[in-house]
Fold:
Amino acid sequence: MIDDIYEECEMDMQGSIEYMQTQFKTLRTGKVTTQILDGVKLDYYGALTPLSQVATVLATDATTITVSPWEKNLLADIETAITKANIGVNPNNDGEQVKLFFPPMTVEQRQDAVKRLKKMGEDAKVAIRNDRRKANDNIKKLEKSKEITEDESRSAQENIQKLTDKMVQNIDNIIKQKEQDILTV
Structure:
């Protein structure tokens, strides 16, 4: 029983870290990535469709992304969707594809990205603490219903705390590495 609670807690905490890392992909570092367009959707035959499902999205160099639609009549829709997404650049339509030219990041933009990075990290830590609280509550319920002893309960809660500390340290390490990536010119 305690092992099941521990495993579930560990899986939930790992999920929080993975979610944080997917959120990081929306942050701009010195080199642009196509993930910056992951949230862009357009109306495709009446359904909101992700950009990657109607066009080829490529980062052609460190500051340029090209979007080549599979159907040429979608160019204007893609351009509109990117403009509405407000990703910080204006799309350039050359009749064949849409190009996005990202200027080099200023020091201020890099510092703003680091602030958003740290906020995402704090959100992940809060999620991990919530997972810890949930696991501890389950352990306390087992103790209250006399399914485990007080010593087993205390030991299990200590193990959950050690897991929490390890996961929070993991988040701090990931954030430190990502911060270095963002601040490196």
